[in-house]
Amino acid sequence: MPDQKHCPDTHDRILDVAERLFMANGYEGTSMRMITSEAEVNLAAVNYHFGSKEALMREVFRRRLLWLNRERIVLLDALEAAAAGAPLKPSQVLEAFFGTLLRMGEDPALGGMVFLRLLGRTLTEPADFIRTFFAGEYAEVVERYKHALFRALPDVPQEEILWRFHFMLGSMSYALAGTDVLEIVTGYEPGDAMATDPAAARRLSARVMPFLLAGLRAPLPAPLASLSSSSAASGDSCDAPFGASSRVTPSHA
């Protein structure tokens, strides 16, 4: 038997198994013994490649997020180059950011829906070390996309755009994590609640992407609109007026 520490596929096999088990049981619910048993390796092999359970969890995410965030930057660069200095449409920004994530669910080589379910679950119940890790991994991408949204929606206060981006991230996280809340509150039990096939990713994308865009384009609530108008009247350039009856029209999407 080859040395487990140095066997070429041991590293990736441990990651694949850990990804599935963390998705199914959560970080706290997955023991190193469970991982070593399913991966058919000993604890020494896991320690050799990763050092600790926390480090293993970080590496599970790093190998997927490396591709995801690089692809997001590449797509945004291409869109902005094609726009030749003009602002992008909000739908283009959302498609590049969230659509790229959902397309991972259709490709098992990128983790498929197993990784997306894990990401959703982790974002809804993150451990402290994962919060710090995600903050570092997402920093450049979020900064780029934040400013792309600011330019795409010049009549919406920037603070409101950040709130809506926060809501979109939360919606996506729950959508990816599964449908436990949907089943508890409504009694509805979708047949593909935790499906991990590519078709499940396509169905999820068809449902969630229009929802996210509609939320981003919704009119500003009246109390916030009046505050925005007051800020604009006082010369605050950060909050452009966006009235309660105003909408980001379909042509802006």
Strand content: under 5%
Poorly predicted residue ranges: 230-253
Spatial shape = globular
Distance from first to last alpha carbon: 58 Å
Structural classification: mainly alpha
Rg (CA only):
21 Å
Mind summarizing the main beta sheet?
none
Whole-number mean pLDDT: 83
The tally of beta strands, per DSSP, is 0
Count of helix runs: 11
In short:
This protein is mainly α and 253 residues long. Helices cover 69% and strands 0% of the residues.
Structure description:
There is one protein chain. This protein has 253 residues and is mostly helical. Helix content is 69%, strand content 0%. The protein is built from eleven helices and no strands. The protein has helices at 10-25, 32-39, 43-49, 53-83, 90-104, 112-124, 128-152, 158-177, 180-186, 198-217, 222-233.
List the SSEs and their pairings.
Layout: H1 10-25, H2 32-39, H3 43-49, H4 53-83, H5 90-104, H6 112-124, H7 128-152, H8 158-177, H9 180-186, H10 198-217, H11 222-233
Helix pairs in contact: 1-2, 1-4, 1-6, 4-5, 4-7, 5-6, 5-10, 6-8, 8-10
Characteristics of this structure?
single chain, 253 residues, mainly alpha, 11 helices, 0% strand, globular, disordered C terminus
